[in-house]
Design goal:
The complex is a heterodimer of chains A (393) and B (281).
Chain A lengths: L2 H9 L6 H12 L7 H12 L6 H12 L15 H11 L2 H10 L2 H18 L39 H4 L13 H8 L5 E10 L1 H11 L6 E7 L2 E7 L8 H14 L2 E7 L6 E3 L9 E3 H7 L5 E5 L7 H4 L13 H11 L3 E5 L10 H9 L4 E3 L2 H13 L3
Parallel strand pairs in A: 3-4, 3-7, 7-8, 8-9
Antiparallel strand pairs in A: 1-2, 5-6
Helix pairs in contact in A: 1-4, 2-3, 6-7, 9-11, 9-16
Chain B lengths: L13 H13 L3 E5 L5 H12 L3 E5 L6 H5 E3 L1 H10 L11 E3 L1 H7 L5 E5 L8 H11 L1 E4 L4 E4 L5 E6 L7 H5 L2 E5 L4 H11 L5 H16 L9 H14 L3 H5 L18 H17 L1
Parallel strand pairs in B: 1-8, 1-9, 2-5, 5-8
Antiparallel strand pairs in B: 3-4, 6-7
Classes of the chains: A alpha/beta (393), B alpha/beta (281).
């Protein structure tokens, strides 16, 4: 029973296993639910999905697998005419942006941008009822986003037209969504290396008991506290094209300072050159020589860059390419020097991954950090931290 | 055992009922997640009430170890008694303190065991409880006895998503995510908590509440429990209806906002919005 359901779930990246399948069958056998499609949907959801980030995917799979099997009482979700969508797009995109996208290419592209825009909107409106849903099969082709269900307006209007799983209420909980400080902290926690260092200030109970048993008198043993000993160098891009990401980067920064005891941070603009600074107000008067950093902090420091890597390629590849000053050596040279000293280096990019390939400079930077560029999403951070832990130094 | 249908003061949505009933009938742990204030912990209390079972609560903290849920062996007390020549020292079971799981396994009446905020503990904590929750039995090594549950207790686990839970642990649970209630469910929740309340007051208050939730840039959005607190305050203060009704933009801050906004930055945001509205007029 339902074998293809499990297969489809696994194909969609939901870690369903035989065990859960058996549980589902057992529950059906014990008549936990009344025999309605809704109850079956709820039961299978409670059995297979263990992460709210996957609920939306589950809804899609459920819809796909059981669509043919259920009558929909003659009420199909309504296709929205393309003109309406265009009108919506115009509402959220400036004419310049529309023109730029149209030049770039297709209607899909516009929809992609619209989707992002609406998602940003949603981030601020979180939990509100002005949301865009994507759902069902697409009348517009199969690439990525399905505009069939772009719905703007109240939830209740469509309630009867759509089944529970077709409503896809958990869409905004998907993993790839951008994140808050707390989520970032959890992702950063992957980068932990516990070690006992420093003064022996904590009672080592087990050692004391063992020592006492061996000696025959009370033998108090002390030990050092267990602390996260990982060391991090954080380089933050400021100004210009990074302005839209200030809030995200702020969150990342506050999470990082709370999470790592040994954290050093520096600012740079666009690309790393011979100088960085710690205080944006005094960025010209109080610079730190990049050589000093390379000499001062040991190989075991892990380096995290945060920047959009969006600039003219010359700013990286040519001496004198910097937009702010004359740099004697090119950004490439500095990036290579740094990568040589710190084998564990990652670049975190707040720009959505899909847009990276449009920018020449992003590709160059990605190459310079050995391909270790990650988007600033929960998943991206997670992968970045994994990469950093993988490298011993 | 009777099906869980919500109780006199807890409104359960259809999907929640299915998840609870599956967990109760199959005796597998139910893992509940959701925004703070949507009633995760209360759910366990209500399941206990509905099934007439005693509730055993285990509140997990960042320092909680899995072993503490089973039992603790007070080696230091025994050592001290040993040096003082106390008689109790010969019986090791004098120094074994029962944990919440032990209590739940040996409870004379089938209990509901609530493991609250499991994600607060160390990342390995859920893994350490795997066997015990699966088999509902564990060994006490000091006394060489095995504690076994006569009947598997109903286990409810809540998580605030601060840490990812291990896969193997999740496979053994049913999962439910309490999503933020829509207007209809919210209405039902309010009806349950304030039976005699004026309909117009509720409707106005809910307008204000959902508006507040929709304000962009709020650090902490108010949730169900805040709405209930706020309504209680409004009732206590006998707030006249027109205060809520007034569309006067200079009063953009809802009355008694302290119950809804828990963050001084959020209050400041509202004050700024009010100020801007005043200036526009």
């Amino acid at each position: 029973m339902f074998f293809n359901f499990v297969d489809e779930l696994r194909a969609a990246g939901i870690p369903a296993s035989f065990k859960e399948h058996l549980v589902l069958l057992e529950a059906l056998d014990k008549e936990v639910i009344e025999q309605t499609p809704e109850a079956f949907y709820y039961l299978s959801r409670a059995t297979f999905v263990k992460d709210e980030g996957l609920l939306d995917r589950f809804d899609q799979v459920f819809n796909k697998v059981f669509k043919g099997l259920l009558t929909n009482y003659g009420q199909n979700p309504v296709d929205i005419p393309e003109d309406w969508l265009k009108a919506v797009a115009e509402k959220f995109l400036t004419p310049e942006e529309m023109a730029a996208i149209e030049k770039l290419g297709s209607w899909e592209e516009i929809m992609e941008t619209l989707k992002q825009r609406l998602e940003e909107q949603q981030k601020r409106h979180e939990g509100g009822n002005k949301w865009v849903g994507t759902g069902g099969t697409s009348p517009y082709g199969n690439s990525g986003y399905n505009p069939e269900g772009v719905r703007i307006g109240g939830e209740s209007k469509h309630k009867r037209a759509l089944k529970v799983w077709e409503k896809r209420e958990f869409q905004n909980l998907d993993n790839t969504r951008e994140l808050g400080t707390r989520n970032i902290k959890i992702a950063l926690r992957r980068l932990r290396r516990f070690a006992r260092e420093g003064a022996a200030e904590e009672l080592d109970l087990e050692g004391t008991i063992e020592g006492t048993a061996r000696q025959g008198w009370l033998d108090i043993r002390m030990r050092a506290e267990r602390k996260n000993a990982v060391k991090v160098l954080l380089f933050l891009d400021v100004g210009g094209s990074m302005d839209p990401f200030i809030k995200l980067v702020e969150e990342l920064f506050s999470a990082a300072t709370a999470e790592f005891k040994n954290l050093e941070f520096f600012y740079f603009h666009n690309c790393l050159y011979e100088g960085v600074w710690k205080d944006n107000k005094r960025r010209w008067s109080e610079r730190t020589n990049t050589w000093d950093i390379l000499h001062k902090y040991g190989h075991d420091y892990k380096v995290v860059f945060v920047g959009d890597a969006a600039m003219s390629p010359y700013e990286i590849t040519h001496p004198g390419g910097s937009v702010e000053h004359f740099n004697e050596e090119s950004g490439t040279v500095w990036m290579q020097r740094l990568a040589h000293v710190y084998p564990a280096t990652v670049w975190i990019n707040p720009v959505p991954e899909k847009q990276w390939s449009y920018s020449q400079s992003t590709k160059i930077i990605k190459e310079l950090v050995g391909g270790n560029m990650y988007p600033l999403t929960l998943e991206g951070l997670d992968n970045a931290m994994r990469e950093l832990t993988r490298k011993k130094h | 055992m009777a099906r869980f249908e919500g109780t006199a003061n807890y409104v359960a949505t259809e999907d929640l009922k299915v998840a609870v009933n599956a967990a109760v009938l199959l005796r597998r742990p139910l893992l509940v997640k959701g925004e703070p204030g949507t009633g995760k912990t209360v759910l366990a209390h209500e399941i206990a009430k509905a099934t007439g079972a005693p509730l055993i609560e285990w509140n997990v903290k960042s320092t909680t170890k899995a072993q503490q849920g089973l039992y603790e062996y007070d080696a230091v007390a025994r050592l001290r008694d040993g040096q003082l020549g106390d008689e109790r020292v010969h019986d090791i079971s004098n120094y074994i303190k029962k944990g919440k799981l032990w209590e739940a396994f040996t409870s004379p009446q089938l209990p509901v065991l609530l493991i609250d905020e499991i994600d607060k503990a160390d990342i390995e904590f859920p893994n350490d409880l795997l066997q015990e929750l699966d088999r509902m039995s564990f060994d006490v090594y000091e006394t060489r006895e095995r504690i076994e549950a006569k009947e598997r207790p109903i286990v409810v686990i809540t998580s605030n998503n601060e840490k990812e839970l291990p896969d193997a642990f999740l496979r053994r649970c049913f999962f439910h995510y309490i999503k933020f209630p829509d207007r209809e469910t919210m209405q039902a929740i309010i009806d349950v908590h304030f039976p005699g309340i004026q309909k117009t007051l509720v409707s106005k208050a809910m307008d204000v509440f959902y508006e507040v939730r929709d304000v962009p840039g709020l650090k902490k959005k108010p949730s169900t429990s805040e709405l209930l607190d706020w309504l209680k305050l409004l009732l206590n203060e006998d707030m006249p209806l027109d205060v809520l009704q007034s569309k006067d933009p200079s009063k953009a801050i809802p009355p008694l906002h302290g119950a809804l906004l828990k963050n001084e930055q959020d209050v400041m945001l509202f004050e700024r919005l009010a100020f801007m509205a005043r200036r526009q007029n």
